[in-house]
Amino acid sequence: GGRCALGTWQGIFLWEHRRRGQRRRVTVTVVG
What we know:
Blueprint: H1 2-20, H2 25-31
């Protein structure tokens, strides 16, 4: 269950990242 939820959050986060562009590239790298 935990892994599934984490994968979902990761997908949402990456989607938001692509939506906004490369502005939060550093944040995504740190969190990921």
